[in-house]
Specification:
about 10% strand, Arginase, Chain A, 11 helices, disordered N terminus, about 400 residues
Length: about 400
């Protein structure tokens, strides 16, 4: 990937003509993804995407006309970000050809296990994200969603956090090569270290991440002082949040920071990672959001009036993740889920995988001590982010 400032590239133009679009939204998914599985004891379940599809179809919120298939990303495209030797290792490791070099590339750990079809799955998931970006770019849809995307921890020659091929970095790179100005917004509970590193010295991709603090969660990065270098100074925005962050506090932080930065940056397109591991009860994290907060965030983002290419990401409680992504699709596609604006009757607060009460969770009230502790940290974080990046954007 080439580096350097390209935000003022000649010929920059609006990426989307609403009058020329065919679809409000397209759902990118291929049944071929279901042929691949991480090891049974791995928390990452590829089945989440198909579960989301089936849930939406059962509710009449997704039909064949909404869906577009995808093919695996070609090797030469993937090599725009990843080194050839690393890709060879991904391909060969399941055959036992790994050794010390593979370990140095991050393979063979509980979070990056070796499994059959590892390269093929990652390339196919990446191809789906690129297809989602292309559908927005060529005007076939205002918004797209690939639930099998969002592998933001992968580095050029190292796997990490269940991620092998960084579809997000490749998607953003594809857009910048076309002269587009990109906002990558990540609300997965884990910090997007791989994507941040890819664009840390550039201003044509603004990387904005809201995540549980690296003091308490993998990958241990994403602090408010990480704001970019060189041409990229001020174009990395990290909002680390404390464990126990609840809906109201999360939304307060988001609304204080994301809208003004997005307006000032004025991107052509938003690449949006929507991991569902901020939900209360997720086994790998410590946030306490309900999916109502996700709906509010998505509505805020759509209100910015920009084309959006969304992906999945984390989410290790399968039922809660599928419901959250179903709600995301309903918002992207402007579909009525049949529920009023009132919250649902259970969801993550019932910690039940047998859900019959609709898609939305019921409201959650944090304890007074938790509210005080979380609010104090978030106030300081918001102040730090404003001090670090607002001046760069004239705010």
């Amino acid at each position: 990937m080439a580096h350097g400032r390209r935000s003022d590239a000649p010929g920059r133009k609006t990426i989307f003509d609403p009058d020329a679009s065919t679809h409000t939204a397209l759902f990118v998914h291929t049944a071929a993804l279901q042929a691949y599985h991480y090891p049974p004891d791995c928390p990452f379940k590829t089945e989440r995407a198909q579960r989301t599809v089936e849930l939406l179809q059962s509710m009449g919120l997704l039909d064949d006309a909404d869906m577009v298939s995808a093919e695996a990303a070609p090797r030469d495209v993937i090599e725009r970000f990843h080194l050839p030797a690393y890709l060879d290792m991904l391909r060969d490791a399941p055959n036992g050809d790994m050794g010390v070099e593979g370990l140095e590339m991050g393979l063979g750990t509980p979070e990056t296990p070796v499994f059959g079809g590892m390269y093929e799955y990652a390339a196919l998931a990446c191809g789906a994200t690129l297809a989602a970006v292309d559908a927005v770019t060529d005007g076939r849809a205002r918004r797209t969603f690939n639930p099998s995307g969002g592998y933001h921890h992968a580095h050029p020659a190292k796997a990490g956090g269940f991620c092998y091929i960084n579809d997000i970095a490749l998607a953003c790179d594809r857009l910048t090569e076309a002269g587009r100005r990109v906002l990558f917004l990540d609300i997965d509970v884990h910090h997007c270290d791989g994507v941040q590193d890819a664009f840390y010295d550039r201003s044509d991709v603004l990387v904005m991440s809201f995540h549980q603090t690296g003091k308490t969660l993998f990958p241990g990065t994403g602090f408010a002082g990480e704001t970019g270098v060189g041409d990229g100074e001020g174009y990395t925005v990290n909002v680390p949040l404390p464990p126990g962050t609840y809906d109201e506090a999360y939304l307060r932080a988001f609304r204080a920071l994301a809208p003004p930065i997005a307006r000032a940056y004025d991107p052509d397109v938003i690449v949006f990672e929507v991991g569902m591991d901020c939900l209360s009860g997720d086994p790998l994290a410590g946030m306490t959001l309900t999916n109502n907060a996700y709906v509010d965030v998505v509505r805020e983002v759509l209100g910015w009036g920009k084309p959006v290419a969304a992906t999945g990401g984390g989410g290790y409680h399968q039922a809660n993740t599928a419901r959250g992504w179903a709600l995301l699709w309903a918002e992207l596609a402007e579909r009525d889920t049949g529920e009023s604006l009132a919250y649902g009757l259970g969801g993550v607060m019932l910690e039940s995988t047998d859900w019959h009460g609709g898609l939305r969770d019921r409201a959650m009230a944090p304890s007074h001590p938790m509210r005080q502790a979380v609010d104090r940290v978030i106030r300081q974080t918001v102040d730090d982010v404003k001090a670090n990046v607002f001046p760069v954007h004239g705010l």
